[in-house]
Automatic annotation (TrEMBL):
GO terms for MF: ATP binding; glycerol kinase activity
Record-given protein name: glycerol kinase
Source organism, top-level taxon: Eukaryota
Cited InterPro entries: ATPase_NBD (IPR043129), Carb_kinase_FGGY (IPR000577), Carb_kinase_FGGY_CS (IPR018483), FGGY_C (IPR018485), FGGY_N (IPR018484)
Species this chain originates from: Laodelphax striatellus
Protein family according to the UniProt entry: Belongs to the FGGY kinase family.
Lineage: Eukaryota, Metazoa, Ecdysozoa, Arthropoda, Hexapoda
Pathway assigned to this chain's UniProt record: Polyol metabolism; glycerol degradation via glycerol kinase pathway; sn-glycerol 3-phosphate from glycerol: step 1/1
Entry EC no(s): 2.7.1.30
EC class (word): transferase
Transmembrane intervals: 427-447
Listed GO biological process terms: glycerol catabolic process; glycerol-3-phosphate biosynthetic process; triglyceride metabolic process
Keywords, ordered alphabetically: ATP-binding, Glycerol metabolism, Kinase, Membrane, Nucleotide-binding, Transferase, Transmembrane, Transmembrane helix
Length: 453
């Protein structure tokens, strides 16, 4: 929250330096890191425990326990209800872990003092008054990432809450992504309405103006997140994708759904690398890491095409990695479709602003009449007519083969008896070759001695 307040103050100061009157601002929108779980005391306003962020896997045992409780012992058991598998990733298992491991959280729940929220909820509660009447709300996109919301009704599901043992009275009210929720109660933006709220990846979907069914965007950051607009249709993936809410731009507006595929490691992809030889240079390593993101993006697109049956005709991209032209051209080459990169790559912030601006009571933007931002388009350079030495499909097949060969390489994951057996077999299989080498060396040594005589 200190960072949020500092951001607001600096933004207002920058506007004044540009001779823009902050009074001209009509609304603000919020975009946030999804799934991150926060619990706090509504009477003191203080967090009851550190936030557990989206990548944190301390709740692995909790996930295993929850999967074991399902009727068919499947992580996908609740996907038809919430669109998500039971995973360390989503808020429900993070919250369950906190409840099981932090006594003061349990006490606060028993006393009716505890509130739960993702980052958007925490920010809105604080900006609209906190302990003095702060609004305890979330939007439908963030709620869809908790594993507690019914994907069809867009309400907290009593069966899911009961399964995870989470009391519904700690959950925020679910609202649309574009409406006036309340007003900022202090600071440089005092009185300004908050009228937009979207999880970061959904905000990028809006910022890229993917308003038509079959459009998709990919955000390249710490992780890589590809969202594919499925319109008002809820598509349950049979190829490992997530079903999520894309956006709802108004109380009475239709809810737009999306399929999502993610690459957990993209911008930080240097931590596991296979296939290094004595000829490998640092440039090769960088290139391999960048290309891995492009190959995995094609993996996701292939899955989406199978689930939806509508091949993507172009891919809209944003995020920090998109500044790299090599990555963008490689992505176009491997997917065989144009990759469109906006000149202004911070489309997540743009999406939050668009949601805020189109809300009833604000209406400074017509969401269906916004000019697309200028962009660069990378067209595929690899053709299927043999003009390039390796076609996209040949390279993709080689990638898939490399993945197959890399599975199970970590010795720490192999049982000791299996490891010993494998080592024994390798030693035995190496004996003939070793004997040949030793005998060859001995014969050369004898021949040298004889020559000297």
């Amino acid at each position: 929250m200190e960072a949020v307040h500092e951001c607001i103050e600096r933004t207002v100061a920058n506007l004044r330096q540009l001779d823009i009157d902050p009074a001209a601002l009509v609304a603000t929108g919020i975009s946030n890191q999804r799934e991150t779980t926060i619990v706090w005391d509504k009477l003191t306003g203080k967090p009851l425990y550190n936030a557990i962020v989206w990548l944190d896997v301390r709740n692995t045992d909790t996930v295993d326990r929850m999967v074991a409780r399902t009727r068919n012992k499947s992580a996908d058991y609740w996907k038809p209800v919430c669109g998500l598998p039971i995973s360390t990733y989503f808020s429900a298992c993070k919250l369950r872990w906190i409840m099981d491991n932090v006594p003061r959280v349990r006490r606060a729940m028993n006393q009716g003092r505890c509130l739960f929220g993702t980052v958007d909820t925490w920010i809105i509660w604080n900006l609209t008054g906190g302990v003095n009447g702060g609004l305890h709300i979330t939007d439908v996109t963030n709620a869809s990432r908790t594993m507690l919301m019914n994907i069809k009704t867009r309400e907290w599901d009593p069966t899911l809450c009961s399964f995870f043992g989470i009391p519904q009275n700690i959950l925020p009210e679910i609202r649309s992504s574009a409406e006036i929720y309340g007003h900022i109660t202090s600071g440089a933006l005092l009185g300004l309405p908050i009228s937009g709220c979207l999880g970061d990846q959904q905000a990028a979907l809006v910022g890229q103006m993917c308003f038509e069914q079959g459009q998709a965007k990919n955000t390249y950051g710490t992780g890589c997140f590809l969202l594919y607009n499925t319109g008002t249709l809820i598509v349950q993936s049979s190829h490992g994708l997530l079903t999520t809410v894309g956006y709802q731009l108004g109380k009475k507006a239709p809810v737009i759904y999306a399929l999502e595929g993610s690459i957990a490691i993209a911008g930080v992809a240097m931590s596991v690398i296979c296939g290094i030889t004595e000829e490998t240079s640092k440039e090769n390593i960088v290139k391999a890491a960048l290309e891995a993101v492009c190959f995995q993006t094609r993996d996701i697109l292939e899955a989406m095409n199978k689930d939806c049956g509508i091949p993507l005709t172009r891919l809209l991209v944003d995020g920090g990695m998109t500044v790299n032209k090599y990555v963008m051209q490689t992505q176009a080459d491997l997917c065989g479709i144009p990759v469109v990169r906006p000149v202004m790559t911070e489309t997540t912030a743009l999406g939050a602003a668009m949601a805020a601006g189109c809300a009833d009571g604000v209406k400074v933007w017509d969401i269906h009449n916004i000019h697309a931002v200028p962009n660069d388009t990378f067209h595929p350079s690899i053709t299927e007519d043999g003009n390039y030495p390796a076609t996209k499909d040949v390279r993709y097949a080689a990638w898939k083969m490399a993945i197959e060969r890399s599975l199970g390489w970590d010795l720490k994951t192999i049982p000791n008896d299996s490891l010993l057996s494998d080592i024994s077999n390798q030693i035995i299989s190496a004996i003939p070759g070793g004997f040949f080498i030793l005998s060859s060396v001995a014969l050369l040594h004898i021949a040298k001695k004889l020559k000297c005589r």
